[in-house]
């Protein structure tokens, strides 16, 4: 049900038309596909998992100064039980995470001007953590932007249409840790906010998707391949031609780890129905306004001291 697509068919030029056709069917019918042949080095992936393990092994007291609820730019540590992706469930997610955004210095004009989602990252004092995470961030950001070139072709857009919308995107790298649990929910049923998500896991089962009109099904694990899914922003951009599919993570019987890269457009990008997609179903909205509204509904405020 969830196809495996070899990126080299498009990036290497060996079968662009065939890849685009397969991509379109996946985006229009399930909103999920697996992407192999992506070129992100396995050594870099292994390094990210190792650094994430080192961070999550720190004490809550060591991680507390990095709490995301103290940061207006969606960066930092997400403590277990502080986030609910399924607002209707009444349950908080049994996971912890760490978010990293576009890396900007404190004196960047966009930071000084207080532009939305233009803040500095916060970092733990772990050797190699920052360099490893930023190398991965840059590699997967480039892959995600290149993937939009295939979307352009599939949607009949002018080549390069999306490039200005992702010049300095509100992309978030999130490493996640799901402790073993007998009940509750790892990550509640939800759809992702942005344009696309590129996910790697350690192979421990738990991720499920719910196709339209169907029941929950497991997402297969293909070693080295990204799980890619369409987000709500791209679904809105395409006027519902592409599908953003609900998914969830069941509580694992043993520790589960994953690396998610959420590619959102630039803050001032205008999300409006793309050319050729028919009468607009949604009013235009900036990327920043859309993301802020979604985040505000997700996080529980930090408890008072």
Task: Fill in the keyword field for this structure.
about 30% helix; single chain; dioxygenase; ethylene biosynthesis; 14 strands; alpha+beta; 8 helices; disordered C terminus; about 300 residues; four-stranded antiparallel β-sheet; about 20% strand; eight-stranded mixed β-sheet; Jelly Rolls
Please summarize the sheet with the most strands.
8 strands, mixed
**Mean pLDDT across all amino acids:** 92
The secondary-structure element order is EHHEHHEEHHEEEEEEHEEEEH
- Reading off the top of the CATH hierarchy, the class is best stated as Mainly Beta
- Residue fraction in strands: 15-25%
CATH architecture descriptor name: Sandwich
Q: Can you tell me the overall shape?
A: globular
Q: Rg to the nearest angstrom? A: 19 Å
- Taking strands numbered 1, 2, ... along the chain, how are they ordered across the largest sheet? 1-2-10-7-12-5-4-3
Compute the separation of the termini in Å: 49 Å
Task: Please give the number of β-strands.
Answer: 14
Structural class: alpha+beta
Runs with pLDDT <50, length 5+? 300-305
Which fold does the CATH topology refer to? Jelly Rolls
Number of structurally distinct domains: 1
Measured as a percent range, the helix fraction is: 25-40%
Number of helices: 8
CATH superfamily: B-lactam Antibiotic, Isopenicillin N Synthase, Chain
């Amino acid at each position: 049900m969830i196809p495996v697509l070899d990126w080299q068919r498009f990036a290497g030029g060996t079968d662009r038309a065939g890849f685009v056709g397969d991509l379109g069917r996946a985006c229009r019918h399930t909103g999920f596909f697996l992407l192999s042949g992506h070129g992100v080095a396995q050594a870099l992936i292994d390094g990210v998992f190792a650094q994430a393990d080192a961070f999550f092994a720190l004490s809550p007291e060591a991680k507390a100064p990095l709490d995301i609820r103290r940061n207006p730019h969606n960066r930092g540590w997400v403590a277990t039980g502080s986030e609910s992706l399924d607002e209707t469930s009444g349950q908080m997610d049994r996971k912890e995470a760490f978010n990293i955004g576009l890396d900007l210095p404190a004196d960047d004009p966009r930071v000084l001007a207080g532009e939305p989602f233009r803040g500095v990252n916060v970092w733990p004092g772990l050797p190699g953590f920052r360099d490893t995470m930023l190398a991965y961030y840059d590699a997967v950001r480039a892959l995600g932007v290149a993937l939009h070139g295939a979307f352009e072709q599939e949607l009949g857009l002018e080549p390069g249409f999306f490039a200005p919308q992702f010049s300095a995107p509100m992309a978030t790298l999130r490493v996640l840790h799901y402790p073993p649990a007998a009940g509750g929910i790892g990550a509640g049923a939800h759809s992702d906010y942005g344009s696309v998500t590129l996910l790697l896991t350690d192979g421990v089962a738990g991720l499920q998707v719910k196709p339209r009109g169907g029941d929950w099904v497991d997402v297969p694990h293909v070693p080295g391949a990204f799980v890619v899914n369409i987000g709500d922003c791209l679904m809105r951009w395409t006027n519902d031609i592409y599908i953003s599919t609900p998914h969830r993570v069941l509580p694992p019987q043993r520790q589960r780890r994953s690396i998610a890269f959420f590619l959102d457009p630039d803050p001032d990008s205008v999300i409006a129905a793309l050319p050729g997609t028919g009468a607009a179903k949604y009013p235009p909205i900036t990327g920043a306004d859309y993301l802020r509204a979604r985040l505000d509904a997700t996080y529980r405020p930090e408890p008072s001291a």
